[in-house]
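Good day; I would like, with your permission, to put a structural problem before you. What I wish to show you is a protein chain and, alongside it, a tokenised description of its three-dimensional fold. Here, with my thanks, is the record as I have it:
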Amino acid sequence: MNQSAELLTQHAAAVDTPVVYEQPLGERMRTFLRLEYLYQQLLFNMEKQSPWATRAAMTSLLDIIAILSRGDLRKDVVKELERQIYVFDRYQNTPVVDTGRLDEVLAGLQAHKNKLSFVGPQYLTPLRESEFLNSVKHRSSIPGGTCEFDLPDFSFWLRKPYERRLEDMREWTKNIRPLCEAIGQLMWLLRHSGQTVAQTAVNGVFQYTLGRGVSAGLLRVSLAAGMAAYPEISGSRHRFTIRFLEWSNVQARATQFAGDIPFSLTIC
């Protein structure tokens, strides 16, 4: 296949891929999604050699540290890993279960738990005590506060070879990596735990009430690629409403979609 044909094939695959919107139904799930989002940004920009990408990676790192400093999230993640290990371990003797895949999932969960135990509860201490990171954090709260004249040491570091900057970034992220990767694994399991059902939003609105005793933490709404509408989701663990808004351009306010919209709903 020549390069042009390959690009066309990739474009066609992208066009056919549904667009997925997610909505957390609790505070812990909001925190998990934010950390997952920031960690993906961090990894993406760390691999780019441009000093501008390193600046963006540093911003993501500082945001992650700020979120992790608000409570003992590591303890919550360890508990969730233990709960998932218990849940999956109960399937060990079920005949219809793929034991190879089950063992792989259990091993992954146990590995994440072991890594979190290794870094310990004081894993943030080196980051909190870093004078360099604290100086960048302090100036980052000011618009444009990380300019060269504000932080000459930061500017000097950004001019270092990429390999040196990457080495420092890896050192700063080594203690938060186990937690962020564990959250990524838990989110993967959660997304694959729900059952996807085809639904229709009549006149652009869909309402749903969860059954008694049903526990849900995340909603996933999938739309066909290219649709000029997006969902606005509000609600709680018990009931929620999805309003589909029609997009026109950045100068005009989105309005509620007037027709019926087919979509796929996954309650995780």
